[in-house]
Amino acid sequence: MISVEAKKRKDACMTRIFVAGAAFAVILLIAFVLYVVIDGVSGMTGKMLSFGPQGLGNMFFNTIYLVFLALVASTITGIPAGIFLAEYAKKGRLTHWVRMAVETLASLPSIVVGLFGYLVFIVMTGSQWNLFAGALAVSILTLPLVTSVTEDALRNLPSSYRNGSLGLGASHWQTIWRVLLPACFPRIMTGLIMAAGRGFGEAAALMFTAGMSTDINWTNWDITSTSCPLNPFRPGETLALNIWALRTEALQVDAAQQAAASSAILMIMVLSFSLAARYLSYRIDKKMGGNK
Amino acid sequence: MAEMTKTLTGFAAAEIEKKQGAVRAQEQAVAQEAAGTAEYTFDVTDMDLFYGDFQALNSISMKIKKHEITALIGPSGCGKSTFLKTLNRMNDWVEGCRVTGKILFEGKDIFKEVDPLALRYRVGMVFQQPTPFPKSIYENIAYGPRIQGIKDKKKLDEIVEKSLRQAACWDEMKDRLQKSALGLSGGQQQRLCIARTLAADPSVILMDEPTSALDPISTQKIEDLALELKENYTIVIVTHSMQQARRISDKTAFFLLGELIEFNNTLDMFTNPSNPKTEEYITGRFG
């Protein structure tokens, strides 16, 4: 028989291991963020922060713009797909194939998606590298995530929402639009944050699609011009891609500092985006949850 | 001259008045006649219901009278809830569910002559678990009118107040209309759901064990409410509690294994059941 002492000792020991595991993850994140930010900020110059040809400002803007476009693209395809799987799909071969397609998309290597994007969005359309093609390539990567999050969110809603609405004579669509989607908004929001994170950090899929150059004229607001910031059909290098380019093939003397600064900016951007989005979805959740 | 014109106009006005009166009387007569023929809200004839191969209801025939409370009792799995859900065609959403036979609602065949969405406007439903939406109290009540296309804010305000008053919720909820309905207690939520059903302007309210998830005080409030509402609405209630059936219903139907064993005035049924199975059930020998 094990003595009580031994049991207690083992219990305490295991507790410590679990705490250590959790602490390790937190410490790793904090250390990592601090290292990247400090390293980046220490080498940062005023010129890097500018929106000129030497600065990172344009890439900062490109990143946000590309993520925005990619989110729009994966939202308008992924959310309907998720709704279909959760609400309309009956058990059967069709559903099986749709689900398999979505899962396969999720496991595609991003470099392959980039190459596919290059062949389809650039070569086949005969256009030059552009942000829109980059956004579409990223949206292929984020589509499965958005779809499965939407499906799960809808499936996890209590059936009472559905019954209550249908019982009042609402159509299926009215039920989805007015009750179900608003109710799972915070969860879909979380999915979109994760999708955005993927977009912020993506480099491989953008190499052949969004291009490795950026030439923005901030006084040009003619949307058809390739130097207009808002024209999605212009080349647009993102921060992540810039980091890769700087550390592999750049000739500038301060390439390492620029890469570090880019990393720091990207890191701060992702963190603040995800915090803001989480806060927003927390607020919505609270408003609907009746704690207010 | 002027006086004469005046008299003439007066005469003409009187004539018009008289004609209108006649039309009104006629309309009233027609309405009364319609009400006479629709003494029964539901007229179910020879209804069978299948889930796939399984027959859940067997040849049910039953007339549900207007402005009465009809209770459906029976042991679990006897088909009483299934029967209730058929009355507003909520079973349409159950995969593999098939119904044969005829159900008339206010004289019209619900499978042929009435659109299921329009049917559910008129035949509201309250579920076992309260089903408030994660929206404000106001939006919950306004939901029914909104899906029917009412957009006018003033009209919606009126409907919300009227429905909450009818469901005896107004006093406790009027100051928190914009707060989430999920913050209410279970009993309040259930009354809110009744108010929400009323807001859609039904003539029938189906209740599927509406108090089985509630405490005794909330249960009593719902029962009192049902008794008040039967003045204007037809109520069909599924209940597990025979005491409840006895307390509030006018007629009781006893279901067993998919068959309607007995359907009679509640008082007669509980004091003098005609079928031995009914007697066994209500005296608690099984179920």
List the helices and strands and how they pair.
The complex is a heterodimer of chains A (292) and B (287).
Chain A: H1 4-42, H2 57-88, H3 93-106, H4 110-123, H5 131-155, H6 159-167, H7 172-183, H8 185-201, H9 204-207, H10 239-249, H11 255-289
Helix pairs in contact in A: 1-11, 2-5, 2-8, 3-5, 4-5, 5-8, 6-7, 8-11, 10-11
Chain B: H1 2-37, E1 40-51, E2 54-65, E3 69-73, H2 80-87, E4 97-105, E5 108-109, H3 116-122, E6 123-126, H4 137-147, H5 153-166, H6 170-173, H7 186-199, E7 204-208, H8 216-229, E8 234-238, H9 242-248, E9 251-256, E10 259-265, H10 266-271, H11 276-282
Parallel strand pairs in B: 3-8, 3-9, 6-7, 7-8
Antiparallel strand pairs in B: 1-2, 1-4, 4-5, 9-10
Description of the molecule:
The complex is a heterodimer of chains A (292) and B (287). Chain A has helices at residues 4-42, 57-88, 93-106, 110-123, 131-155, 159-167, 172-183, 185-201, 204-207, 239-249, 255-289. Chain A is mainly α and 292 residues long. Chain A has 2 domains: 1-42; 47-289, Orthogonal Bundle (MetI-like fold). Chain B has a 6-stranded mixed sheet with strand order 6-7-8-3-9-10, sandwiched between helices. Chain B has a 4-stranded antiparallel sheet with strand order 2-1-4-5, with helices on one face. In chain B, helix 4 (137-147) packs parallel to helix 7. With 287 residues, chain B is α/β, with parallel strands linked by helices. Chain B is globular and about 55 Å long. Chain B is built from 11 helices and 10 strands. Chain A binds chain B through residues 90, 158, 160-161, 163-171, 174, 178-179, 182-183, 287-292, and chain B through 88, 90, 93, 95, 117-121, 124-125, 127, 129-135, 143-144, 146-148, 179-184, 193, 196-197, 200.
Provide the descriptors you would attach to this structure in a database record.
heterodimer; A: 292 residues; mainly alpha; MetI-like fold; 2 domains; 73% helix; globular; B: 287 residues; alpha/beta; Rossmann fold; six-stranded mixed β-sheet; four-stranded antiparallel β-sheet
